[in-house]
Design brief:
Low-confidence stretches: 404-413, 452-478, 491-522
Distance between the termini: 101 Å
Number of domains: 4
Helix content: 55-70%
Structural class: mainly alpha
Strand content: under 5%
Oligomer: single chain
CATH class of the largest domain: Mainly Alpha
CATH topology of the largest domain: hpI Integrase, Chain A
Number of helices: 27
Mean pLDDT: 77
Largest sheet: 2 strands, antiparallel
């Protein structure tokens, strides 16, 4: 083979035994009712016992032909079609090992339904003790494949007039509608959802993304110079992978969409300038941005049209790649922009991103993937105050439907519950929910380390005392007599008087004479005129709004007037404000 002069013509084919077998098989006649292009795709499958089953079973071939008719025009979907046929081949092979299901037609006899379930459980690896599948997604896929084959058999039976096969497959479909969820899909879906519980949500870090951008810029300039100086397969491939990463990272696009970008999409891009009438609606900066970037439309998920924005640096790299394709052994038949030299395939964006994430010095390279970067952009959009239409524009650019992907356009579920919902739970626990009436979650301020004031912390005489109507809303304009009256009415109970007796019910028996004397001496201390003015100067907004301040606000009040409030604790300041609020509420 090495000395053969025809070796150059088969250089792009698979090496080893498979290549020889494929060459022999291509000379065999194509089976009846099978498309020649589809049969060529089947012959490229890996040689093993599963492939032998696929090629012998007509129903599996009809399933593959059905998928090929829908997706065969896209070369990148051929592997998906082969995978679906191999999944079904594994199920048929397992049915033969169990002994009751000899061929595919036996799967659609109603009496054999329990054996079909047993075969699916075996292939997907069901553990009956824990009711968990080793591969729950495979169990779901096998169900979809069986239903598609049932529909194909039903259509064939209708066209051929085979009433027996028609009644069997219709009965099988009815049984599936009733029993399949009970026997397979409910357990598989439960396994898939439970596997996501308590898993840390990895989002890219801003520093890592910045490092990756800087690394890509350096690599891009380096490989541009090398390709211009010395065109070769290696330099072309390295520049293609770096540019592929840049486009994915900048646009936060799905890696598969950019990897499969067609060469014609770049060459035939719209290079016309913005219409003058449209520019009237744009600012000067936006007009400059329209000239700075270039836009390409490519095929996205489910055949949707998705846009790609290219910077001048990316444009330079892509034009270099296009101009040096032939010199670097990129085949003319390869329709992809990011093509592999001497092959008909393309570079995979996921592989390129993974390699560069490890090389750029990122602390968490596992968090740098196209999917996580897309979710990160959607989540961080909450930092901006976007309007509904602006959020829709962002989601449309990313290829999202805001109704379907709403969970990405808000804070992560765990963070939301820890930071927001916990406020409501603490307010309910402390009985303060009424204090936050009419406020949203962002406006609620509550300190988790703040000590809750018990009823014993406020003397009964102060709670029951009625305001005389002489208290203005602020200390401004009050004379010394009025402030002195407020200070008498709103005295702060000493921390060691009544509350200590409640905390220590046997304190009477343990009290020392001198301690009792000291406690009775300092039981209460009137608020002076200077102290009242200092508190109201800082915390008057809390008194007017009826909201009790937290520890941080009280400490700030003391720090602003250290001379006047040097003998007061933050609990005392808070107690004063609470008494003022209670007095105003009773008067109202």
């Amino acid at each position: 083979m090495q000395r053969c002069h025809l070796n150059q013509k088969v250089k792009g084919m698979k090496p080893g035994k498979t290549r020889v077998q494929s060459l022999c098989m291509y000379t065999e006649p194509v089976p009846e009712s099978v498309n020649a292009r589809f049969w060529k795709m089947v012959l490229e499958m890996h040689e093993d016992e599963i492939t032998n089953v696929v090629r012998k079973e007509k129903v599996i071939l009809k399933l593959g032909q059905h998928l090929f008719n829908k997706h065969g025009h896209d070369v990148t979907k051929h592997e998906y079609i082969r995978q679906k046929m191999r999944e079904t081949g594994r199920l048929v092979l397992q049915g033969k090992k169990n002994g009751k299901l000899k061929e595919v037609s036996d799967f659609f006899i109603p009496a054999n339904f329990p054996d079909v379930i047993e075969a699916v459980h075996s292939v997907a690896g069901l553990n009956e003790e824990t009711s968990t599948f080793k591969a729950p997604s495979l169990a779901l896929k096998l169900g979809h494949n069986l239903k598609k084959m049932a529909n194909i058999i039903e259509c064939e039976a209708m066209m051929s007039g085979d009433k027996n096969a028609l009644s069997n497959v219709q009965a099988f479909k009815k049984i599936c509608d009733t029993k399949w969820s009970e026997c397979v899909s409910s357990q598989a879906l439960r396994n898939l959802s439970e596997a996501k519980w308590n898993c840390p949500q990895l989002l890219p870090f801003a520093d890592d993304v910045k490092k990756m951008h800087q690394y890509l810029d350096r690599q891009s300039k380096e490989y541009q110079a090398k390709l211009e100086k010395e065109p070769s397969n290696k330099h072309w491939a390295e520049l293609a992978k770096v540019t592929l990463c840049q486009v994915i990272l900048f646009n936060r696009r799905r890696e598969g969409e950019v990897s499969k970008m067609a060469l014609n999409a770049f060459i035939l891009r719209d290079t016309s300038s913005t219409h003058p009438d449209v520019e009237l609606a744009l600012s000067d900066l936006e007009k400059r941005l329209c000239k700075h970037f270039q836009r390409i439309e490519i095929r996205g998920k489910r055949g949707r049209k998705v846009p790609i924005l290219l910077t001048p640096e990316m444009m330079k790299s892509l034009e270099l790649l296009v101009n040096h394709r032939r010199e670097c052994d990129v085949l003319d038949e390869n329709v992809f922009l990011f093509a592999r030299p001497q092959a008909l395939s393309h570079f995979r964006g996921s592989d390129a991103i993974r390699q560069i994430a490890r090389s750029c010095g990122a602390k968490h390279p596992e968090a740098l993937s196209s999917t996580k970067l897309r979710k990160h952009m959607a989540t961080m959009s909450k930092v901006l105050n976007l309007k509904d239409n602006e959020m829709d524009d962002l989601a449309d650019f990313l290829g999202h439907d805001i109704r379907v992907h709403r969970q990405f356009y808000r804070l992560p579920e765990g963070t939301l519950q820890l930071a927001k919902i916990s406020k409501v739970l603490m307010a309910m626990e402390r009985g303060q929910i009424v204090d936050f009436k009419g406020k949203n979650l962002d406006e609620i301020q509550i300190d988790p380390k703040e000590r809750v004031l018990m009823d014993s912390d406020v003397s009964d005489s102060e709670n029951e005392k009625e305001m005389t109507g002489k208290y203005p809303s602020s200390s401004a304009g009050k004379n010394d007599k009025q402030l002195h009256q407020i200070g008498e009415d709103l005295e702060e109970p000493h921390a060691t008087s009544k509350s200590d007796k409640k905390l220590h019910p046997i304190g009477k028996d343990l009290e020392k004479p001198h301690a009792a004397k000291k406690s009775s001496k300092n039981a209460r201390r009137k608020w002076s005129t200077e102290e009242i003015q200092a508190v109201e100067e800082t915390l008057m907004d809390y008194i007017r709004s009826g909201k009790v301040p937290g520890k941080a606000q009280c400490m700030e009040c003391i720090e602003r007037s250290p001379a006047a409030l040097q003998g007061r604790s933050w609990e005392g300041v808070k107690c004063y404000v609470k008494n003022r609020i209670d007095s105003m509420k009773r008067k109202m």
